[in-house]
Design goal:
- The chain has a four-stranded mixed sheet.
- By secondary structure, it is of the alpha+beta class.
- It is built from five helices and four strands.
- It folds into two domains: 100 residues; 94 residues, ATP synthase, E subunit, C-terminal (hypothetical protein PF0899 fold, 2-Layer Sandwich), CATH 3.30.2320.
- It starts with a helix and ends with a helix.
């Protein structure tokens, strides 16, 4: 009887120990699993954050590139518009001067252009060439232009019409008698000399606020 009780007590102790060990193992397993889940969650959150940051950086880079391209396209379009407007202004000026040939004041304009060119050369004799349509007017103002040159420079000058083929463009070219120097006062050359001022005028009037 005593042996049976001892055996039962032993079995009960073993069972209790086994249950305790099993409980401890389960608790350890739950704790380990929980820690692994937490670690996995933190890793997932970190990966997601890194991916979001990377995506954000990529989006920002794309936005910067798009902004740069847009600014460049806008500037290119403005430059093209400015150039078209400038060329239009030049063409209209050229056309306007062409219409002046038949006007009364054009003789005075030619006189001024010849005077300016001859005064710039500072020679004692020069020839004046122009288009066929301006030749008679130029011939009529040569003497007065020579007088104006002498008033400006203090030196007398002899001006005569050139025997060369008339110019294709409007305006005059004054060449020294020895042919070494010349002053081009044709419309295209005059407009070219003033292109900086014309371009600035176009910019200030039409593009300053853009």
């Amino acid at each position: 009887m005593e042996n049976e009780e001892a055996r039962q007590e032993l079995l009960s102790g073993i069972s209790t120990d086994a249950e305790t060990q099993a409980k401890n193992l389960i608790d350890d397993a739950k704790k380990s699993a929980s820690e692994r889940v937490d670690a996995a969650r933190r890793q997932a959150e970190r990966i997601a954050a890194e991916a979001a940051e990377k995506t954000k950086g990529q989006v920002q880079a794309i936005e910067r590139e798009a902004s740069t391209r847009l600014a460049a396209a806008k500037r290119r379009m403005q430059l093209e518009m400015k150039e078209k407007i400038y060329q239009n202004v030049i063409e209209r000026c050229t056309t306007e001067f062409e219409t002046l040939i038949e006007s009364e004041e054009y003789g005075k304009i030619l006189e001024d252009w010849i005077t300016q060119a001859a005064a710039g050369l500072r020679v004692d004799a020069a020839t004046v060439n122009c288009s066929a349509g301006e030749r008679d007017l130029a011939a009529a103002v040569l003497d007065r232009a020579a007088e104006m040159v002498e008033e400006i420079t203090g030196d007398p000058v002899t001006l005569s019409l050139s025997d060369e083929r008339p110019l294709s463009g409007q305006g005059v070219v004054v060449t020294s008698s020895d042919g070494r120097t010349a002053f081009n006062n044709q419309i295209n050359s005059r407009l070219f000399r003033y292109q900086t001022e014309v371009r600035k005028l176009v910019h200030d009037r039409l593009f300053q606020d853009l």
